[in-house]
Specification:
binds zinc ion; alpha/beta; single chain; 12 strands
Length: 327
């Protein structure tokens, strides 16, 4: 496993360097930016802006979370989005409940301040019992996705699944969990299936956004029709901005693009509405006429373009670093 990862990183580094040698860096940057814009079109403007126009350039510090923002700024209605997938997120962050024949798999848990009302309360509003959440898969250990993990573990005895390096980062953190940390539970592995009853979520390790970021492939049903979701677990560049970190990130985006294509995914989800327009798509469902596609069903080609945006913007950032170091 470790060997394989190193090999793919080395290949990614070679491909990246090949691009830089073939063109002057400035031209390379412009070419990658143009490719990102083309791939984004009008589908992924939020992702394009965050990664290519105004990217973050450093990790957050190990500090306590600030005070909860005003409820009006984040609260939104929970919703049934597919036959077996329910949105229990906020206006900004997503949390998804995948129902199975033997309980619920929850994906991501928002900030701590939102988790009780939006997840536990949201599930109840939708007629679902939060005590039936058997697994909680956390894409990565940042406060906006791991915030409700402890609540689910303590109150509902849900099993938590997270990447090993992100479990480590929780344990290392001094200040980020003033109300207690979730206890280390299941370590998500590449290719592992988290199975509950008739339903499985396949984990794809995609280090980059954090070292333990987990992406996912799973099926949903739209009026009985099965569709496949590619769930990208980490997006922004708020990690140590150096060439090796961008090489890792780029390799993971290619890996997930490949996994999505092999699974024939026609739906792209992330954990921020900024990137997948979750809240807007859910609102669009009210205007859906019989026979029209689901607002989340964007097609295989568009799913592929999403991963092109993330990769190309990372190439831009990577070449800018090389340009700085060549001065
Ligand atoms: Zn994050």
């Amino acid at each position: 496993m470790k060997h394989h990862t190193r090999a793919s990183l080395a290949i990614a580094a070679l491909i990246g360097l090949g691009g830089a040698v073939a063109q002057a860096p400035a031209d390379g940057i412009e070419a990658h930016l143009a490719a990102a814009k083309t791939a984004a079109g009008f589908d992924f403007t939020g992702t394009l802006v965050r990664l290519c126009i105004a990217p973050q350039t450093a990790p957050g510090r190990d500090v306590a979370p600030g005070p909860a923002p005003a409820r009006d700024t984040w609260i939104t209605e929970p919703a049934k989005v597919f036959d077996n997938l329910y949105f229990v997120g906020t206006k900004i962050h997503s949390s998804w409940a995948l129902t199975t024949s033997d309980g619920i798999i929850l994906i991501d848990t928002l900030y701590e301040y939102a988790s009780d009302e939006s997840i536990a309360g949201g599930l109840k509003k939708l007629g679902l019992d939060p005590a039936n959440v058997k697994f909680v898969i956390i894409s990565h250990a940042h406060g906006d996705h791991v915030g409700g993990a402890k609540l689910m573990q303590d109150r509902f005895k849900s099993r938590l699944v997270m990447g090993a390096p992100d479990w480590d980062s929780i344990e290392r953190s001094v200040n980020q969990y003033p109300n207690g940390k979730p206890k280390r539970d299941i370590v998500g592995q590449d290719g592992q299936k988290i199975t509950l009853g008739d339903t499985s979520v396949t984990l794809v390790t995609t280090p980059g956004h954090t070292p333990g970021t987990l992406s996912m492939i799973f099926d949903v049903k739209d009026n009985g029709r099965p569709l496949t979701v590619a769930y990208n677990g980490g997006t922004a560049f708020n990690f140590v901005n150096d060439v090796p970190h961008f090489d890792t990130y780029i390799a993971s985006q290619r890996k997930m693009a490949d996994a999505a294509a092999r699974a024939n995914a026609t739906i792209l989800m992330t954990n921020h509405s900024e990137f997948d327009s979750a809240v807007t798509r859910i609102r669009l469902m009210a205007a859906r006429k019989a026979g029209e596609p689901h607002p989340y069903e964007i097609g295989r080609e568009a799913v592929g373009r999403y991963f092109k945006v993330t990769e190309e913007c990372a190439q831009v950032a990577r070449l800018k670093l090389l340009q700085v170091s060549a001065r």
